[in-house]
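Subject: design request, 161 residues
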């Protein structure tokens, strides 16, 4: 059941103060547009220009320190107690020898036992043939087949019989 409609009769006028008008107003009219900045004028000076900048003066090339004398490596290390003769073999080559690798022998997949056929001929009934029951389908209803109509009027085709 539909509730009765009530009409509010009031002599007060509706104002245009909606939440949309209160929240979303044109703020460009309140704040003035920022003025574009004035162009800067160049500074005129009669002072002499030196060809060296402050950056070049502060961060210019500095003199290099004196080089230390090169370390001399003598070939005869008789007095060196840690001197060992060179074995002509690296530790990597000594620790990681080339162990013999035997090639893995794979059988031909066609000759595998899993793919082999049965040894005896199967003469019985399969599970599928035993479990499957062939149901008879109902006869189909006759359908009228006609060529597509060539006449079209408005929103439907016109069939000529």
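Subject: RE: design request

Done. Sequence follows.
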């Amino acid at each position: 059941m539909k509730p009765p409609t009530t009409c509010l009769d009031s002599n007060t006028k509706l104002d245009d103060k909606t939440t949309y008008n209160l929240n979303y107003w044109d703020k460009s009219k309140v704040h003035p547009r920022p003025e574009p900045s004035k162009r800067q004028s160049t500074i005129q000076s009669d002072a002499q220009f030196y060809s060296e900048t402050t950056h070049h003066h502060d961060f210019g090339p500095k003199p290099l320190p004196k080089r230390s004398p090169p370390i001399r490596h003598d070939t005869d290390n008789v007095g060196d107690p840690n001197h060992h003769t060179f074995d002509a073999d690296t530790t990597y080559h000594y620790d990681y020898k080339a162990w013999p690798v035997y090639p893995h022998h794979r059988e031909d997949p066609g000759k595998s036992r899993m793919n082999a056929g049965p040894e005896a001929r199967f003469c019985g009934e399969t599970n599928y043939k035993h479990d499957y029951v062939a149901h008879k389908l109902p006869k189909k209803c006759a359908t009228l087949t006609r060529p597509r109509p060539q006449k079209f009027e408005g929103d439907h085709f016109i069939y000529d019989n």
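The chain has a mean pLDDT of 76.
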